[in-house]
Amino acid sequence: MSESLPATIELRRETGLVAYARALADMERRNVAIAAGEARELIWLLEHPPVYTAGTSAAAAELLDPRFEVVEAGRGGRYTYHGPGQRIGYVLLDLRDRARDVRGYVHALEGWVIDTLADFGVSAWRAEGRIGIWTRDCDGGEAKIGAIGVRIRRWVTMHGFSVNLAPDLSHFGGIVPCGIEDYGVTSLARLGHDVSSEQWDEALLAHAPAFLARLDPPCP
Predict the structure, then answer these.
(1) Active-site residue identified among 42, 178, 185, 191
(2) Is 138 tagged catalytic?
(3) Which terminal CB of the chain, N or C, has fewer other CB atoms within 10 Å?
(4) Looking at residue 79, what DSSP letter applies?
(5) Residue 179 falls within a domain, yes or no?
(6) What is the per-residue pLDDT for 175?
């Protein structure tokens, strides 16, 4: 599905687990190279070994049980869990050539995930005052199925989103996910949808043109 992306954007899809610290270092280098005009933009789809990542607003009291490695992520937000069965999308785009609108970028990123979830029969939405992608869990209550965390440096984006395909949901118990205590987390598997990373990637990339179109600068 790389044909769904313009030639200016590299697509990288990982089939094995990528250590979070390595991915973070790669993103840092790529951000600098894109800003310098020395590398193409990048959409990188992957999964991590179990890890807790701390955003710039992470509070120590929200790290309840550090059973896995904890890494300072440098992105916005609080504590997040990443692990096998959770598909990550790191999106490194040059907003100097698009609308320089941080809020609009985050909104477009959320919409990309929401549109893709709909392909698998999952209705998802944004929730006012609560970061992330939300859906109706098995018990009828709202639960988070995806997380959003971004950093923009030199108007080049970093980090992106994560979606719970079939992770071990008990691993989220070591943190207060994104600082939100009153709602749980769920996954496509918990909701009865068996979706592989390959199927997810294909559906996501089919919606990439619409996502990129949302980032177009306004008409002069």
Answers:
(1) 178
(2) no
(3) C
(4) E
(5) yes
(6) 79
